[in-house]
User: Fold this.
Amino acid sequence: MNNQNPDTTANNSIRDIKQRVEEIGIFYEQTTLTPMEARVFALLLLADPPEMDFFAIQDFLQASKSTISNALKRLMNEGRVDYITKPGDRKRYFRVSVLRWLEQIQESFASVGPFVSTLNKVIDLRKDTNSPEFNRELLYIKDYFLFLKEELPRIQAKWNERKRSAD
Amino acid sequence: MNNQNPDTTANNSIRDIKQRVEEIGIFYEQTTLTPMEARVFALLLLADPPEMDFFAIQDFLQASKSTISNALKRLMNEGRVDYITKPGDRKRYFRVSVLRWLEQIQESFASVGPFVSTLNKVIDLRKDTNSPEFNRELLYIKDYFLFLKEELPRIQAKWNERKRSAD
DNA sequence: CATTTAGTTCGGTATTTACAGAACTAAACG
DNA sequence: CGTTTAGTTCTGTAAATACCGAACTAAATG
Assistant:
């Protein structure tokens, strides 16, 4: 049914592309994805068209079904990937859900909260100690996080505003 | 020589404190420290006075010398911990270097760069593809990172300004 | 300069984690 | 309603990682 060029990605040799997937994959591996998750994600970033069915992913990466299944599951849980379906075709076509991915990133930015509360615990537990200098430094760093907690939503708002007025 | 109360931390039972170290430790474990690194870090955050010699750390955490040595090494490389020395005492007293730790955090905030360049690679590799919608989304998310790359230094400057005028 | 002290490094082990393969499931198709 | 399809789940294994213990090193001490 897909009558486009059936290449996985545009006009480059398949070997080249495998290399690119590895390369991009390594970057995302360092942002807390497992090697295979990172490769799946990189592949979907580069694929043309930008959605692939389960078997195509498995075949390209030469991995087992379970590994691909688990990688996709985690990528979907993290909001980086979703899938579309096509009428009269029961396959799922997996793709990077760029906009949800962006939302996840934005939310994670907002998560300074836990740092603040952990520091508060520490500061509270230290309240009877005889280390005023150190305790003051802890208050200082907590202050910084509180500052971020205020400012990050601000720049988020600024971004929203910029994008709103761009249409 | 240390004529303070020799308790590891202030006026709480040692069992309590072990529990606190675990608790605070678990939080830092989730921010890319190994369990033992996280415990060492948590211990130094709670210790009173806020510096401890090698053996005191080892004894408290009931771990091997090598494990403590490696944990301290990594914590020092990451800029979270340093040590002081005392005249006529060849031990090193390890402590959380709050201000360097803060600097590290601030630097890591500034590191949006790699995200942008990875996205640029992806966008470049996709330039001949037939997926305008997807490609536009990628440009959009890249735009967001570029925006952050501008704005984060700004809020950093704002913080510096606030702190400068606070003395 | 032999010994103690304060750690580091090296080699091995146990636990965890990533992945494979095969058995299973649920929906759709003939 | 048996079979194919599109995945998932379960069980085992290989590789990576965290940790231990013992051998080592470098500085200070007697």
Strands of chain B lie at 51-53, 81-86, 89-96. Chain B touches chain A through 49 residues (CB under 8 Å). The radius of gyration of chain B is 22 Å. The helical segments of chain B are 14-29, 35-46, 54-61, 65-77, 98-109, 113-125, 132-164.
